[in-house]
Specification:
The complex is a heterodimer.
Chain A (H helix, E strand, L loop, with lengths): L3 H10 L6 E6 L39 H11 L6 E17 L2 E19 L2 E7 L4 H11 L14 E2 L17 H18 L3 E19 L3 E20 L2 E11 L5 H4 L2 H16 L6 E8 L6 H8 L4 H5 L20 E3 L22 E5 L2 E2 L6 H7 L7 E2 L8 E2 L3 E4 L6 H6 L3 E14 L4 E13 L2 E5 L3 E6 H6 L1 E4 L4 E2 L4 E5 L2 E9 L2 E9 L4
Parallel strand pairs in A: 5-7, 9-16, 15-23
Antiparallel strand pairs in A: 1-16, 1-22, 2-3, 2-6, 3-4, 6-7, 7-8, 9-24, 10-11, 10-15, 11-12, 13-14, 16-17, 17-18, 17-19, 19-24, 20-24, 21-23, 22-23
Helix pairs in contact in A: 2-3, 4-6
Chain B lengths: L1 H28 L4 E17 L2 E19 L2 E7 L4 H17 L35 H18 L3 E20 L4 E18 L5 E10 L8 H14 L9 E7 L1 H15 L1 H5 L20 E3 L22 E5 L2 E2 L6 H7 L21 E3 L15 E9 L9 E12 L2 E14 H6 L1 E4 L9 E2 L3 E9 L2
Helix pairs in contact in B: 3-4
The chains are: A alpha+beta, B alpha+beta.
Chain lengths: 523, 462
């Protein structure tokens, strides 16, 4: 739940960390997702769009087309290339359970309008926390200060239809409190039943109904809804003096039907399984070793190793190690990387990006060759290329930036079992707590929360939490086998860049990297 | 200008106090047994320039109210930015509806009124600079351009700029609780940073970033200093390469050392302790670090970033000796975690009007003696860590493993730049193995540390 003043004050008080982007799982302590494959498109797909309820929805008169048009006109009164208005309505609910006891029920509504004026690559931005014409005009006037001279006309706003990629029937946020609590109780019970060594269970259920309305000076008017839900279970297992943790979480742009595919019990049991595995974990080796990445969450590697470096703002500013690399070999020929905002119900999916562009699947790396960047409007104009629908923002208080949606590697031809069997001594990496990349040089790390030693082609003992470190282009050149077993991570990842967090998805088949630095303690 | 802003802030203070106390009275009328309400507002400006051209101008004004309400031991929290009376009425009713579906939690009640700060100390922590508004858009753009120009001028190997930015803002926060506490905090902040790139071999780029941040404008470092340091940091990394795997002494630069102190902070937080998410949970009164280590949480430092006279529940704050010469003396406790653990609260509650949890104020490792370069003495081969990467830390076991960037130490001197390596050791062992601390403690963040040395860590590299 956002606290208006906290986030506001934190923003200017903390200088942003330059050129560093992070990916974290969103659960409170550590979280790991379910290893099972997410059915990308549920078989019994029922098309039912969540209902609009924001005060700016069509039919409600609080933000009329005429008002939006005059706000955009005011924004361009001093010239500039284009302007847009982004209204956001966000109703959220969060229930947290601590050791079997509901601690707090929280929720609320956050609403406002961001107004942006763009002049080449320069941005003027301001926002209003309500829909009052006076406040909107003030924000437009502030944003227009970036423009130097002249006047630009706006086109008449015309409503556009958008795709429907999240067939949510019953939004979790609308579920009665008692029913939400019952879901957490089921997970808690299942977790404790796994073993008497489970000494503590914490669980939370967070859900959001978000609506966005985008009006641009080139006449686009789009209203869309973005539902989101996430369940997280984290547990502690104790054996003698040893204490270890485990967790499981998942969700996405899905409704109550999520729990028929992934029951709360499944998450409870999975959290317990990981904690118990970790009770057996041994010191990890230090040094350069072959690493086999399990299918699913290992997509975090792509997100860090290449994804951020391909966001076009860094390339426009020539601060990414992928600057001027289009057409070059940047990875092993086995590697094809896609960013796809259209995966039904996935956490990173969007129908339309936050600049009003309908987002489509696009290729980033094909057969090892770099073919494209992720563009927002500013970078697409700079590179004179088609916008890829990658302009995203955390809220109406932020400006859009090129961001990933669901980033994954295409499946290959190798049998996953054979991949593991091909390693004499190495690491099998399964679950992660997060990762980070330095965009300028491509150095990345990601932190393992479930991993195993591979000895003589067989999976051996579990390892204590360990960091893997590498360099994006070098690591991707070391990919020597790609499995047939693609799976998408169950939605739990949040990506941070320039102080803005957005939900993303990742996916991966089983992959072998011939060499990666493993940060264990055993030399 | 300054008198105007001070007056404006005082008017805002009485307005917000009225909103908060009215909402408090109303929610109690509606049936709440206890409530804590925080009402805040603020203004901010942030600008950035790149290649000496304006890149962005962002201005914001924000206000909001957050509440924690308890009815029959059932807790709900919520927040809103719609402060119109009719909207607040609906909001408060909704909060109590949420409380009704929660479950009774008998220890969730706020502190007893007798424990609240009755008369706040008159002490001025100097959190607010009345001159903050004199940093106008034009002046901010000029400062940023100066910083960037200094960076580009510093070294011809600098090949690109990611720009320079300036931010400033001020905000007011009022806390009103059903125990009878009403207090407010007025604070300002300003920052200036620059970020440039140097091209290395194989298309790699090395980035250097430096920034300054302060409550008072006059305490900011000069734009020239910021720019030059950003450039020096980028160029110093040219030719970075991994070092060999092994067990070596490690010196943490003060900025990397701060990251280690943040981990300690997370493990002494009451919430982590009662949730069993801390390897320090059972360690009160025992040695948790080397005897030269003392860690302090001091809410009363003038002009420091995290100073506060009262905590998020309305208790008067105090300086806390968290680790005294290696021994863990106290956890940081809000009322809830203190009750869970059967300990006395330490007035460390964060925020207010939200789920209470403990937080640090100005949390730091006490300074040792001598400049940081003395820490290199006597090290035949080791690592100087300038920056760590990633989140590789498990609070439950204390296992620590992170990416690192810095310099090789050879025969007591800094050698070639090092990257693409990890450093690992259990945090418990790491703290026990600190054998020297420098004097370079600066209060430029909420958590601070001087540079220090650890006898040995596992370095995983080539």
């Amino acid at each position: 739940m956002r606290e208006a003043s906290d986030s506001f004050f934190a923003r200017f008080s903390r200088p942003r960390r330059a050129n560093v982007a992070t990916l974290r799982c969103v659960a409170t302590i550590v979280a790991m997702p379910n290893r099972k494959q997410v059915a990308a498109r549920p078989p019994n797909e029922r098309k039912a769009r969540p209902k609009f309820e924001a005060p700016f929805a069509a039919g409600q008169q609080e933000l009329s087309r005429e008002l939006m048009q005059s706000v955009l006109e005011r924004a361009l009164a001093h010239g500039a290339d284009f302007a847009d208005l982004y209204a956001e309505y966000r109703r959220s609910s969060a229930i947290s359970m601590e050791d079997g006891q509901i601690r707090t029920v929280s929720g609320g509504v956050d609403m406002g309008v961001g107004i942006r004026v763009v002049c080449g690559s320069a941005i003027g931005f301001s926002y209003a926390e309500n829909l009052e014409p006076r406040e909107l005009m003030r924000a437009a006037e502030n944003a227009s200060r970036i423009a130097k001279s002249g006047h630009r006309a706006t086109e008449a706003l015309r409503s556009r239809k958008v795709a429907d990629r999240y067939s949510v029937c019953d939004e979790v946020v609308d579920l009665a409190g008692e029913e939400q609590i019952a879901i957490l109780r089921r997970a808690d019970k299942a977790c404790r039943q796994v073993s008497s060594e489970i000494s503590r269970v914490d669980a939370s259920l967070v859900s959001v109904h978000k609506e966005i309305l985008i009006a641009t000076s080139d006449g686009v008017l789009i209203h869309d809804v973005q539902p989101m839900m996430r369940i997280s279970i984290s547990t502690v297992a104790t054996r003698g003096k040893r204490t270890e943790s485990g967790s499981s979480s998942g969700g996405g742009r899905q409704g109550l039907e999520y729990f028929t595919l992934h029951t709360p019990e499944e998450h409870g049991k999975e959290a317990a399984r990981v904690a118990l595995v970790n009770l057996e974990s041994q010191d990890a080796p230090a040094g350069v070793l072959p690493v086999v990445l399990a299918a699913g969450d290992s997509g975090i590697l792509l997100h860090e190793a290449v994804g951020h470096g391909l966001e076009a703002d860094f390339n426009r500013k020539r601060t990414s190690n992928y600057t001027d690399q289009i057409g070059n070999e940047v990875a092993s020929s086995l590697v094809t990387v896609i960013d796809d905002p259209a995966i039904a119900g996935s956490r990173g999916s969007i129908n339309v990006d936050d600049e009003g562009v309908q987002a489509q699947e696009h290729e980033l790396i094909v057969g090892g060759k770099l073919v494209g960047y992720l563009h927002d409007k500013i970078s697409a104009r700079h590179f004179k290329l088609k916008h890829s629908g990658s302009g995203r923002r955390e809220s109406f208080r932020d400006v859009p930036l090129p961001r990933m949606s669901n980033t994954y590697m295409r499946a290959g031809a190798s049998d996953p079992q054979e991949i593991i069997a091909s390693v004499d001594r190495g690491i099998y990496a399964v679950k992660y707590s997060g990762g980070q990349v330095n965009i300028s040089n491509g150095d990345f790390v990601f932190s393992l929360t479930e991993g195993y030693l591979i000895e003589n082609g067989k999976i051996g003992p579990p390892l204590k939490g360990v960091n893997l470190i590498g360099n994006g282009p070098s690591a991707l050149r070391c990919v020597s086998m790609v499995g047939t077993d693609f799976s998408l991570s169950d939605g739990m990842w949040t990506c941070g860049k320039d102080g803005q967090s957005v939900p993303v998805g990742v996916g991966m088949p089983t992959v072998k990297l011939d060499r990666l630095t493993v940060g264990g303690t055993k030399v | 200008m300054s008198a105007d802003l001070q007056k404006q802030a005082e008017r805002e203070r009485s307005r917000l106090e009225k909103v908060a106390t009215n909402a408090l009275a109303r929610v109690l009328e509606l049936g709440a047994d206890h409530a804590e309400i925080r009402c805040s507002s603020g203004e901010s400006l942030s600008i950035s320039v790149r290649e000496q051209k304006t890149e962005s101008i962002q201005e914001a004004r924000s206000s909001g109210l957050s509440i924690r309400a308890i009815m029959g031991d059932r807790v709900a929290t919520s927040s809103t930015n719609d402060l119109r009376p009719e909207a607040l009425e609906v909001f408060l009713q909704r909060v109590l509806e949420m409380a009704a579906i929660s479950e009774p939690d008998p220890i969730a009640a706020p502190p007893d009124p007798s424990e609240l700060a009755r008369r706040l100390s008159k002490r001025d922590l100097q959190t607010f600079d009345p001159m903050i508004g004199s940093l106008t858009v034009a002046r901010a753009l000029k400062l940023a351009k100066q910083a960037e120009a200094a960076a580009l001028r510093e070294d011809e190997r600098i090949t690109a700029s990611d720009g320079a930015g300036v931010g400033r803002g001020w905000g007011l926060s009022v806390l009103a609780t059903s125990g009878g506490f009403v207090g407010s905090t007025l604070a300002s902040n300003a920052s200036l940073g620059a970020h440039v790139i140097a091209d290395d071999v194989e298309g790699k780029k090395r980035n250097g970033h430096h920034s300054t941040r302060a409550r008072f404008l006059e305490d900011l470092d000069s734009p020239e200093e910021i720019g030059m340091e950003a450039a020096r940091r980028a160029v110093a990394q040219l030719g970075s390469k991994p070092m060999g795997t092994g067990i070596f002494p490690v010196v943490f630069d003060r900025l990397a050392a701060r990251g280690i102190l943040d981990l300690v902070a997370s493990c002494v937080m009451g919430g982590s302790v009662y949730r069993k998410r801390s390897y320090l949970a059972e360690r009160l009164g025992t040695a948790v670090a080397s005897p030269i280590v003392s860690i302090i949480d001091d809410p009363h430092r003038r002009r420091a970033p995290a100073s506060r006279l009262f905590d998020g529940e309305g208790r008067a704050t105090n300086r806390l000796d968290v680790v005294q010469e290696g021994t863990l003396r106290t956890f940081l406790l809000d009322t809830y975690s203190a009750r869970k653990l059967g300990l006395a609260p330490t007035a460390s509650a964060a925020g207010g009007g939200s789920i209470p949890h403990a937080s640090t104020s100005n949390f730091y490792l006490a300074a040792g003696k001598g400049p940081a370069r003395n820490l290199l003495r006597g090290i035949d081969r080791g690592l100087f860590v300038a920056r760590t990467m990633g989140f590789g830390f498990d609070p439950v076991s204390g296992n620590f493993s992170r990416g690192a960037q810095g310099f090789l130490i050879e025969k007591g001197k800094l050698g070639h730049p090092v990257s693409e390596i990890t450093i690992s050791r259990n945090l418990d062992e790491l703290l026990q193995d600190i054998d020297a601390i420098a004097s370079d403690l600066i209060f430029d963040g909420a958590t601070n540390s001087p540079s220090f040395r650890v006898r040995s860590m596992t370095i995983s590299g080539s």
